[in-house]
Specification:
The structure is a single chain. This protein is mainly beta. Helix content is 6%, strand content 39%. It is built from one helix and eight strands, in the order E-E-E-E-E-E-H-E-E. An eight-stranded antiparallel β-sheet has the order 5-3-4-8-7-1-2-6, with helices on one face.
């Protein structure tokens, strides 16, 4: 029976691009009417805090989860959803080609080092 089937070659969807442990994805998508710019943490990174602040320790970027001042986290404490945030200026800082791009999409994944429950550093 299988020899009668003409198989079609479809690419696997984004599901196969899951983030590994202790990772963060910085991305943008300029295709379509709604332009999006975001940061997504892997599922093993979770916090009971509602905000994130971005800073530097030496030459390394760091994320500090807080309840005081910062960028609002999305999907916080929702099972099976990655926590993240939207911040065009941060995405432009990490992916400078975005400043001149008018279409397209890009994603860059970094590994993170856990310093404490609320502080993570991007491994260079």
């Amino acid at each position: 029976m299988e020899n009668l089937i003409q198989f079609m070659d479809f690419e696997q969807g984004s599901r196969g691009r899951q983030l590994g442990e202790n990772s963060v994805s910085v991305w943008y998508n300029l295709n379509g009417k709604n332009k999006t710019y975001g940061v997504t943490f892997s599922q093993d990174i979770d916090s009971d805090k509602t905000l994130v602040r971005i800073g530097k320790i030496g030459d390394s970027m760091c994320f500090v989860f807080t309840n005081e001042t910062g960028i609002r986290l999305q999907n916080r404490n929702q099972p099976k959803k990655n926590m993240g945030f939207f911040a065009k200026s941060f995405v432009e800082y990490i992916l400078p080609e975005l400043k001149t791009a008018t279409t397209g999409k890009k994603r860059k994944v970094f590994t993170l080092k856990k310093v404490s429950d609320d502080i993570y550093i991007i491994n260079q």
